[in-house]
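Predict structure. Chain length: 328.
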Amino acid sequence: MSSNSSLTMDSVAGAVYAALELLIAVMCCLGNLLAIWAVQASGSLRKPTFCFMASLAAADFLVGAVAIPVAVLVDGRVSTSFDSCLFLSCVTVLLVQASILMLLVIAVDRHLCVQMPLRYKRSFTQRRCWAVVGVCWLLAFAFSFTPMFGWYNRQTLAKMGNSTTSVCRLVSVIPMTYLVYFQFFGCTLLPLLVMCALYVHVFRSISKRLQRSQARVTESHAYYAKERKLAKSLLLVLVLFAVGWLPLSIMNCVTIFGGDVPLVAIYIGILLTHANSAVNPVVYAFKVPKIRSAYLRAWRKCDLCWQQGVSQSTESKDFSTKSKSIED
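Prediction complete.
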């Protein structure tokens, strides 16, 4: 009886999880498409930091368009070959790794901008920024597809025997040693610590320079005040990323060291990781004035188009009504 109720609870949790994943996927796609459009449509946003933010938004969009559907599939909902399941699982890891690398690049970018502003403006052209973005994505591919080159779960492959397909689960094909020691400790926790150190140094440097120019309102004072506001907004994005990803990573650590984690808790952890990608465009809207202005312009254009469409529809209806009355 208890076994049946446990299975029922797991199936209900799985259904709720899939429904919430679908909702988060839609929010990820719509919000991040708007963020990418804001960066591309506004000339004032064609600067290094905003190029990196656009790449981060692209990774977050792909989380909604690709990673979430794949994550639902690799939760035991389809039967595939071992190699296909391993490939799909690596795709979900890829987009996480791309987000981490873009956050790291943004932190380095803010640090250089504050420490060497004149040299930064000369050196960081848009072409070089997109080259950095390309390198980050290549590194993300290399780190994420490591299991395809041998670091996979050989026990699952041995259990399959002569069978060509089995139920696809991420934790069945990718070992916890890779998820914890390589992905969490090496590719997530270490970059997060580096980013925190960079932001601490950025805020200290800005505070010192603002104190020096506090007595007089100069162009330098305005520049560093603006940089501090932007750095606070980007730091918030980093903090939300840590809040979204650390719970699931800690659960993986508990699992590898012999602990037992309830399935519901794992589902909540996965939902938090994906919800983080839907939250970033909201942060941009409230914390980055230039992106907020671009959002408002987009809203006004959509509202204007809708009003024009309504007025044209009303006019056509009036015209058809008048035509009918004349015919009568």
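Summary: The two ends are 75 Å apart (CA to CA).
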